[in-house]
Amino acid sequence: MRVGVLGCGYVGCELARQLVSDHDVVGVRRSADGLDAVRATGAKAVQADVTDSDALASVPDVDALVFAASSGGRGAAAAERVYVDGLRTAIEAFGSREHSPDRLVYTSSTGVYGDHDGGWVDEDTTLSPTTEKTRVLAEAERIAREFAPEYGIDGAVARFAGLYGPDRYRLERYLDGPVTEGYLNMLHREDAAGIVRFMLESTDEELLVAVDDEPVEKWQFADWLADECGVERPAKRTKAERLEDDGLSEPARRRILTSKRCSNGRLRELGYEFRYPTYREGYRDAVEARSTAN
Question: How do 186-188 and 162-164 pair as beta strands?
Fold first, then answer.
């Protein structure tokens, strides 16, 4: 199978590393700066912007397409250009070819759920995005699942929880504090890529919540991390205390007020085996590296 990874970055390069031994992989990046990282995985590297159909013509035909492009952490307008316009452009560009992909996996976010007051959510939970950016992500999910089939492409969504892993452990954020209350729903980068691979190779599910086994309260996680690192537990603050900050942006305020626990029950039932089932396994390398450095 030839797999095209549009947005071969943090998760995409890990996916390429996992796929190259069994499949032909093409990794696509917007800028030339990231092409060496794609080549290092063993994949073929192509420079193209997902919003430019002419540029996408340089990408060879593929049997499966993974849309993992990033908007670079910018605002809702940039997100719409990449996730909505870019995804639609990519579907049209590849779907119009004589040899079009059989399957598309779009990598979304559990942010589309909005606030559930700490309750559990899964694939059957109604979406209630609370920010412009998460509303854009919800629209992109619709495009993947409804627009792609118009071109004969089986569209699917992997809804990622908060990603962490090499270069994204953010230890000091929790060790230094203060830590605001709320739930963390997490997923190690290797499992994020592993779940997409699972969706390409082992299941035809249209939607999967990609999260590990154990959503955890931030205070509990911070205390565990401090204990493992052998440092004093960080200061804590309630949501009410954090919301007293007049400098908070409206999106930040909404994120603080958003609380949910994401279930991976369907993923587990289908047989996916996690490399890092919880944060305890996932943060082990980071804790050990910190201890060695100190």
Answer: parallel
Give pLDDT, residue 74: 67
Closest CA to 206 of 67, 64, 63, 103: 103
Within a domain: residue 288? Answer: no
Residue 209 within any structural domain of the chain? yes
d(CA 254, CA 44): 41
* 66: containing domain: 2-169+185-216+262-280
- The domain tally of the chain equals 1
pLDDT score recorded for residue 73: 63
SS3 content of the chain, % helix, strand, coil (to 5): 45, 20, 35
What pLDDT sits at residue 101?
A: 98
pLDDT tens string 110-165: 999 999 999 999 999 999 998 899 999 999 999 999 999 999 999 999 999 999 99
Q: What is the spatial distance between Cα 41 and Cα 209, in angstroms, rounded to a whole number? A: 26
**pLDDT tens for each residue of 217-234:** 999 999 999 999 999 999
Distances (CA, A) of 64 to 73, 94, 287: 26, 10, 37
Residue 225 placed within a domain: no
| Residue 21 in tokens | 């031994």
Q: Domain of 132: which CATH number?
A: 3.40.50.720
Nearest to 258 by CA among 123, 161, 158: 161
Using CA atoms, how far residue 188 sits from 87, 158, 273, in Å, is 25, 14, 13
184 - beta bridge partners? 216
**For residue 203, is it within any domain?**
yes
Q: Are 122 and 268 in contact (CB under 8 A)?
A: no
Rounded to whole angstroms, the Cα distance separating 256 from 94 reads 39
pLDDT at res. 125: 98
Q: How many Å apart are CA 261 and CA 121, to the nearest integer?
A: 6
